[in-house]
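In the design runs reported in the main text, the only information available to the sequence generator was the tokenized backbone. The following block is the verbatim input for one such run; it is reproduced so that readers can re-run the procedure and compare outputs position by position.
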């Protein structure tokens, strides 16, 4: 908690301390063995949280510096549409394999959840793309899906 508080107040992250803190919570006493929970195709690992936080911090820094280009925003949007459509398709299967202690681990895809999570998703994808530019090539090759919500 202290590590996260420091990040919130200073705006700077000590990623080494953060990694240790997250692993102490998720993998107490695990040593070299990494623990994953959830569906094998979409597991949650301590490393996943570290990558997510690092990506978001990178995106925030780049946005604050004003160096994010329109092309980067377009690529992030495209990557989000492709990845989120895949998640929407797989979500029922992921949920069926969620740990009994965490039945809501894989959030259903609704218009509301898309809206609520959109800024976090944008930051994550902008950061991941900035840290791993080669990953954008794979997403760019996939046509953007069309997501439609039915109102009942």
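Verbatim output:
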């Amino acid at each position: 908690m202290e590590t996260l508080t420091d990040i919130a107040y200073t705006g700077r992250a000590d990623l080494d301390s953060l990694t240790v803190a997250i692993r102490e919570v998720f993998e107490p006493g695990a040593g070299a063995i990494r623990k994953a929970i959830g569906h094998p195709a979409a597991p949650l690992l301590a490393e996943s949280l570290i990558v997510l936080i690092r990506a978001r911090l990178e995106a925030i820094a780049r946005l604050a510096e004003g160096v994010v280009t329109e092309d980067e925003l377009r690529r992030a949007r495209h990557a989000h549409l492709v990845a989120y459509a895949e998640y929407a398709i797989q979500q029922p299967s992921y949920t069926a394999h969620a740990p009994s202690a965490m039945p809501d681990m894989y959030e259903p895809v609704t218009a509301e959840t898309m809206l609520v999570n959109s800024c976090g998703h944008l930051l994550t994808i902008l950061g991941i793309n900035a840290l791993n530019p080669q990953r954008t090539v794979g997403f760019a090759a996939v046509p953007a899906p069309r997501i439609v919500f039915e109102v009942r």
